[in-house]
């Protein structure tokens, strides 16, 4: 956990009783005098400077919240000390020490009342000890056969310096670890033997010797580099026995990791001392029952309330998420809703159904790390208690381990065991329901009233009864609905026009519209009914019915669905339809938006900006198109025609109009004369492009020849001559000549 924070980091944490802005934290530190604290405030060494503040400066609520978020209780990497102090004394060392202390005690008794100098007293005492005239216990004499003044003085100094452990002596201890199998080949032989024992604990010394010969040869390299023959089997037996004594923990970790984790791995105590209230933390787990039932071996699901140590059980034939839900139901109805439930990573505990149940009840789910049962040691210990306390009393008890099972089987002779089934061997006569009843009775009548060491001698019943905390209860019917199984594939469906599909059947949901997403819970008592809940907010939407499974007339169900849909749409879209009509009759939407834009526009005019012309070749060409065409001088004949046309156009409007009308009538008469012999059922073909070209060409040739041409025809021919159609035909005429006009 980080204990030193800057003002910005404190604000980011958003802790209670502390500002949520960096400046607010700085003002608080100045006001409270945090910067003046030499122990809890220090200059920040990073870029930007400033101060860092220790968590101890925070108010109590802020400290608790910060530690709740970041404090982790976990296994630490303990450093190995450079000096382990005095080595543990052996039995021989202890005997030597006690014998020498007995000699010193005898010398002190001998010296009392004597006026001689210490050297003289020592000389006399040593002489009498060696001569056997002093009364000395036989075991002391056995250890110390002969005594000298120097040894006696050395022992006295060690005792006066409180170094009594140094009085022990074991010559064999100095030679420990110096045997050939310990030091051969740089210690690799010892490591190889240790690995063989860890891999196969029951291997014999003779086979170990053979494997050492296979690995290192018939001669081993000693400490001094000399080659020595492989020792006999007896030496290997002593070496293996010594390794099993000195390396017991390492061998256990290698050969039996579960036993090492259960009995030898370092562990702490009191990690959950902060859990002091009932329903603050539950731990749940499951284990196969050590008692066989008639219908097979069942699993026991256990729920433990950590603070008062009370317990609840649920018996299930197989591990499944539904069993977890039913265990929680039993505990909820008895104790109330917990704040947190801690589980392991079993499939039944991390299933989507279990997570959904916890979320629906507002319970925080906490998972322990994988393969670390010690992370929820309270419920593990509770399971061990029930397995060792209750299960041996039940019929069908099969033992806690393979060794226990074999011992129970051995109660009958081989002849009796031969061909006997499990029920007969273990006296199985109990059903799963009876096992559940025994567990409930044991939890309420025995375990609840048994003093608990973790409660300082109080019982779980007393601890729960002494708590003033109010229980948060859930209605049993609502709880039953939350425990209903969801439809397949997670239970979430998108409503279609035909309803929702569950296991190949169509369920009609009257209260939902196509596109709505719902969570479906199946009615365990009616296969044709499901309860729908909104995925977003969890509200109850309605019942989904399957006409086929529920025995309902499909036509009536569909009619009810249509009526409900119409009602929902009318309720949702009625006001919107009226508003649409008002919008259609009013001003166009674009006018309304432009009015708002004009209202929002600032009442400011921009100053004129300086302008410079910008041109490109393309822009220059485009300007040429827009300029007035250059007037080309006309020749005499064209000028005469132009003057005539201009005079006609500038003349009186009515005479000119009359001439135009007369000309049009004359052309119509000509056309009628040509077509009067055609029957009424024959329609004249429209003028083809080539015919138009011939007519225009004839008019233009007449104009060039100086002939009098009708003004309208001349104007039309002049305009037609500028069209692409005319130019195309003119190109063909230039290529093929006048023969082109003949076809």
TrEMBL record:
GO MF annotations, alphabetized: DNA binding
PROSITE patterns xrefs: HTH_MU, INTEGRASE
Entry's Gene Ontology BP terms: DNA integration
Domain HTH Mu-type residue range list: 3-74
Integrase catalytic domain ranges (all copies): 274-468
Top-rank lineage group of the source organism: Bacteria
Protein's name according to its UniProt entry: Integrase
Organism per entry: Hansschlegelia zhihuaiae
